[in-house]
Amino acid sequence: MDVRFLNPFVDAAAEVLKVEVNIALNRGDISIQKSAFTTDDITVLINLVGQIQGVVLYELSKETGLAFVSKMLGQTFADLDSLAQSGIAELGNVISGKATVELSKTGLDSTISPPTMIIGKGTQISTMDFPRLVVPLVTDLGPVTVHLALRESPKDEENINFVPLIQKAVASKQEG
Questions:
Q1: Domain count within the chain
Q2: Contact, 50 vs 112, CB < 8 A?
Q3: Has residue 161 got a pLDDT over 70?
Q4: Residue 101's domain spans which residues?
Q5: CATH code at 29?
Q6: What is the pLDDT confidence band of residue 169, given thresholds at 50, 70 and 90?
Q7: Of 38, 76, 127, 136, which residue is 20 to 30 A from 56 by alpha carbon distance?
Q8: With bands split at pLDDT 50, 70 and 90, how would you rate the model's confidence at 92?
Q9: What's the mean pLDDT in 48-55?
């Protein structure tokens, strides 16, 4: 995992949370993990393809997610209904989008996927042997943990997804 991918995501998170939720954040101690991890209540997953490939995961508690979306939309949310889920997923989407714009300014272009939301504490997520930079972000409304499993694509693989199952599906579709 290349640490130069870290700052664009942390900077984007700070900017988006300040603008959308009106809160500041502090970065905790960064660690590198290779093993599977167990999710918190909410995990927003965004894939990147292009010159940078991999996955970014934003992990937070239900309480933190509801507090964020309540401040964003100016109304109280007590449950993770479809509007609350959409708001939380959009935060991950906007943060990732801003980070990829900053990375493109350094010559590394990538495209992000629409967000996928995993709801429910205790789900195991593995990026296989793909190491993740784990960055805790502390806010007054609760913590958000960002997992960055990103790498620069080999020149001949800039549009290939690093997930083997997706690679097989794309190859079989091209053959058929």
A1: 1
A2: no
A3: no
A4: 3-175
A5: 3.40.1550.10
A6: low
A7: 76
A8: very high
A9: 92
Q: What letter represents residue 11's amino acid?
A: D
Burial of 98: CB neighbours in 10 Å, binned 0-12, 13-18, 19+: middle
CA distances from 85 to 69, 105, 154, 155, 157 (A): 9, 31, 35, 36, 33
Q: Which of 72-86, 105-119, 142-156 has the lowest mean pLDDT?
A: 142-156
pLDDT for 165 equals: 47
Q: What angle do CA 71, 76, 78 make, to 5 degrees?
A: 120
Centre a 10 Å sphere on the Cβ of residue 57 and count the other Cβ atoms it contains. 22
CA distance 162 to 167: 7
Q: Classify each residue of 7-40 as buried b or exposed e, where b means 16 or more C-beta atoms within 10 Å of its C-beta.
A: ebbbebbbebbeebbeeebeeeeeeeeeeebebb
